[in-house]
């Protein structure tokens, strides 16, 4: 196992030590992907939910109280229902695209964390070997056992 770690240590030592996942991932985003992320961020916020709820309440009040005789969308609110259906039909796939991209970003972050862990393990093994060598040079056993001292 230590030989395999030492083999990979040389490879990982040459790699840059810190890589920002967001920077790596954002370099390859297209305009449509950035737009989808922005739409998902806005559509999944409390401000959107509150604002859209206020819009629907205003729509209902306008068509039932203010414009009683000349309402452009009377009570069953068929036009409002059509608009909500179209919004949901467009917003759902956009949010799913954004979630898929976030999952890809998470997988990249996990892979980079794994590489960092391998580098750290290799460096720890290398330090352990050096400490064992120093202990050997000092005449102490490397297994953690101290020799008996004569008083």
Write up this protein.
With 151 residues, the protein is mainly α. The chain has one domain. The chain has 5 helices and no strands. Helix 1 (2-14) packs across helix 5 and helix 3 (31-43) packs across helix 5.
Distance between the termini: 41 Å
Radius of gyration, whole Å: 31 Å
Total of helices: 5
User: What number of structural domains do the residues give?
Assistant: 1
Number of strands: 0
| Average residue pLDDT | 85
Order of helices and strands: HHHHH
Q: Tell me, what's the shape?
A: rod-shaped
Name the beta content range: under 5%
Main sheet summary = none
Share of helix among residues? over 70%
Question: Which regions are unreliable across 5 or more consecutive residues at pLDDT < 50?
Answer: none
Which structural class best describes the helix and strand composition?
Answer: mainly alpha
Topology:
Elements: H1 2-14, H2 21-26, H3 31-43, H4 46-66, H5 78-138
Helix pairs in contact: 1-5, 3-5
Features:
75% helix, 151 residues
In short:
The protein is mainly α and 151 residues long. 75% of the residues lie in helices and 0% in strands. The longest helix is centred in the C-terminal third of the chain and has 61 residues, at 78-138.
């Amino acid at each position: 196992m230590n030989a395999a770690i030492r083999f990979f240590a040389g490879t990982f030592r040459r790699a840059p030590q810190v890589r920002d996942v967001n920077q790596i991932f954002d370099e390859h985003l297209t305009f449509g992907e950035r737009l989808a992320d922005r739409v998902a961020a806005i559509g999944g916020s409390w401000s959107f939910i509150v604002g859209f709820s206020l819009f629907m309440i205003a729509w209902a009040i306008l068509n039932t109280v203010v414009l009683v005789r000349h309402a452009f969308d009377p009570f069953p609110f068929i036009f409002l229902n059509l608009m909500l259906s179209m919004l949901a039909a467009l917003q759902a796939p956009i949010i799913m695209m954004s979630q898929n991209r976030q999952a890809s970003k998470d997988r990249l972050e996990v892979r980079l964390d794994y590489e960092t862990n391998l580098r750290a393990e290799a460096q720890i093994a290398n330090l352990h070997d050096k400490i064992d060598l120093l202990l050997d040079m000092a005449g102490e056993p490397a297994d953690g056992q101290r020799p008996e001292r004569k008083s």
